[in-house]
Amino acid sequence: MSREAVAVESAVVADPAEFDRLDSRVAFGRALGKIAENDPQVMAVVSDYGRRLALDVLRSKLPGSVVQCGIAEQNQVEVASALANEGFHVFAPSYAPFITARVLDQVRVNLGMMESPVVLVGLGAGYHAGILGPSHMALEDLACMRSIPGLTVVAPATNTELACALAELARNPRPAYVRITQAPAGDPALPSGDFELGLCRVLADDAPGRMADVAIATCGSIASRALAAAQLLRGRGLSCRVVTVGTIKPLDQHVVELLANARLDVTVEEHSVVGGLGGLLAEELLDRGATPGLLRLGAPDGYPEADEQARLLERAGLTPEGIAASVLARLG
């Protein structure tokens, strides 16, 4: 973790447990406000949604640092790219499906081909906004963004990890997408630990350096459910390894090594089973010649009806009990 990221974490996240319980939108605004104390080039370009992002601290520290584009996400990316090309450290937040799928051509041209160092921030990813219907569910965003050459794709598991990622991207601007998910109320908390862009984090390992029965790779806030599922599997006598992949692209190849040394690999994500973390690791494992069994758990390949996040996750089998049951069924 960079010195700047550590400084942001210690200032914004004096109590990581409390910070991680915040609404992720508030955590995002607080982190940008703290970064702005030492970085006068920070800007946020928003599309109507900005009023919900706790950006008052940023505005007070750097007047004129928040640009409102209205409900026009394509224009948001164009404005953000122009400002980034002039040397500003620009973050462009919006609902995750709108800042990825709706603006894919603008992202492809500006961030991909022209390499404009804009950090796109996808809020409410996965099922978090599911009560608003499938138009607001970001279930294809990782598939879209990881296909853009040169784009860094980040999926923090907690607000603390989010603050560290934002600080690093402000210090070293580059074309990037940060995917923000938030676990439903009542989900188990993740243990705190160091976060560094580009590196995975091992949450649990019953067989370090040895063959594990099950290796689970996960990303985003659903990591807490994957960790709880591993505990259930241990109760059935299985050794488990749990790895959270905070950076989807470029991928830490240590993830592939950890998964190659297991009887069964499992990916758990609040994203479609098509094109997300599961698809990425399938590609990487095959490229490396490592072929353990792979079970991809995520959102089914279809558009669900509107519902609350917790119920959508349950319907997709993405509870600790559902994950464990799927693993046991696969192992026979």
Automatic annotation (TrEMBL):
Pfam families xref list: Transket_pyr (PF02779), Transketolase_C (PF02780)
UniProt feature coiled coil, ranges: none
Highest taxon above the source species: Bacteria
SUPFAM superfamilies tied to this protein: Thiamin diphosphate-binding fold (THDP-binding), TK C-terminal domain-like
Residues in Transketolase-like pyrimidine-binding domain copies: 22-187
Protein name, as recorded: Transketolase-like pyrimidine-binding domain-containing protein
Organism of provenance: Tractidigestivibacter montrealensis
Organism lineage: Bacteria, Bacillati, Actinomycetota, Coriobacteriia, Coriobacteriales
